[in-house]
């Protein structure tokens, strides 16, 4: 399918969650990691997400070696995917902005209850992936389940980055946490879509980016529908068809996996719309419609 959405792709493949990549890390295969970086860059990735797993904590020098090795072969800026401030500082210290054509890296990610990463801002300059799935309430982290909670968290945290740190909204990516539909009995997909519309309509957030890992939406579902079509990819495109017009413009994903809008009469598009209207067991029954041609 030819990509026709104007999307930024953050390449996700340098991650031990992929078996072939885990083997590269297990063998400390820097040339293999470099080749994977080049493949994603040549496929059009705007950024490369870097996650080496637990070794980032136990072998920080290997983390630095990976970053330097990747920057030897690509000019694509990097996104560092670790919740640890200690690891992020190693990543930022190892990163060469010059080798990335002057482009800033991305710190992936902060939340309202994991704000300590912003202590690095000033000594280093970077862009931010901001998680809108969790909020702080009376000193406790709580998961967001409604559009209002997601939107409120995104707005509050984004404006804090802007007002307290002088960060441009163009440097902020809000991770909308796309949920798997197979167990979504609480309307989380609907909440995410509605929150995207609210963020996109907020004049105070004009210029901000919205993103997500689309592969989550089809987790634990068979890859093919009853008619043999690529079910998971159609679901991703159905989500994008509804959200790109409201400012969802960045995907954490595989760069060579093209994305294009679905026509309104496409059966997966119709089934996804129906799914968004359901809750509880009705939502699970609606999932079955995805397998009917």
Quick summary:
This protein is 39% helix and 16% strand. The chain is α/β, with parallel strands linked by helices and 293 residues long.
Task: Give the key terms.
globular; TIM Barrel; 10 helices; alpha/beta
Helix coverage percent: 25-40%
Total beta strand runs: 10
Please work out how many helical segments DSSP would assign: 10
Number of domains: 1
Q: SSE string, helix = H, strand = E?
A: EHHEHHEHEEEEHEHEHEHH
Q: How much strand content do the residues show? A: 15-25%
How is this fold's topology laid out?
Elements: E1 8-14, H1 19-26, H2 30-42, E2 47-50, H3 55-58, H4 60-73, E3 78-81, H5 85-94, E4 106-110, E5 127-131, E6 134-137, E7 140-143, H6 147-165, E8 172-175, H7 188-201, E9 209-212, H8 231-243, E10 248-253, H9 267-276, H10 280-288
Parallel strand pairs: 1-2, 1-10, 2-3, 3-4, 4-5, 5-8, 8-9, 9-10
Antiparallel strand pairs: 6-7
Helix pairs in contact: 2-4, 4-5, 6-7, 9-10
Could you explain the architecture of this structure?
The strands form two sheets. An eight-stranded parallel beta barrel has the order 1-2-3-4-5-8-9-10. A two-stranded antiparallel ribbon has the order 6-7. A hairpin with a 2-residue loop joins strand 6 and strand 7. It has helices at residues 19-26, 30-42, 55-58, 60-73, 85-94, 147-165, 188-201, 231-243, 267-276, 280-288, and strands at 8-14, 47-50, 78-81, 106-110, 127-131, 134-137, 140-143, 172-175, 209-212, 248-253. The protein has a single domain (8-261), classed as Dihydropteroate synthase-like (TIM Barrel). Helix 4 packs parallel to helix 5. It is of the alpha/beta class.
């Amino acid at each position: 399918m030819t990509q026709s959405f104007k999307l930024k792709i953050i390449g996700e493949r340098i991650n031990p969650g992929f078996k072939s990549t885990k083997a590269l890390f297990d063998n400390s295969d820097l040339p293999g990691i470099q080749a994977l970086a080049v493949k994603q860059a040549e496929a059009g990735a705007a950024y490369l997400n870097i996650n080496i797993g637990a070794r980032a904590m136990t072998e920080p020098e290997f983390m630095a070696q990976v970053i330097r090795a990747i920057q030897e072969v690509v000019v694509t800026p990097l996104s560092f995917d670790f919740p640890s401030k200690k690891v992020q500082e190693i990543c930022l210290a190892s990163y060469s902005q010059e080798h990335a054509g002057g482009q800033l890296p991305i710190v992936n990610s902060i939340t309202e209850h994991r704000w300590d990463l912003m202590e690095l801002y000033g000594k280093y300059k970077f862009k931010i992936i901001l998680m809108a799935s969790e909020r702080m309430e009376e000193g406790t982290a709580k998961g967001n389940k409604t559009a209002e909670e997601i939107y409120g968290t995104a707005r509050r945290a984004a404006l804090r980055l802007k007002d307290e740190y002088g960060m441009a909204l163009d440097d902020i990516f809000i991770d909308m946490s796309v949920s798997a539909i197979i167990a979504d009995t609480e309307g989380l997909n609907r909440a995410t879509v509605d929150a995207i519309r609210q963020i996109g309509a907020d004049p105070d957030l004009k210029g901000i980016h919205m993103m997500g890992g689309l592969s989550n939406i089809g987790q634990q579902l068979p890859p093919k529908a009853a008619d043999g079509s690529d079910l998971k990819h159609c679901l991703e495109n159905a989500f994008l068809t509804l959200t790109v017009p409201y400012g969802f413009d960045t995907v954490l994903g595989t760069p060579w996996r093209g994305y294009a809008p679905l026509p309104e009469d496409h059966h997966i598009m119709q089934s996804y719309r129906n799914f968004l209207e359901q809750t509880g067991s009705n939502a699970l029954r609606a999932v079955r419609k995805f397998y009917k041609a």
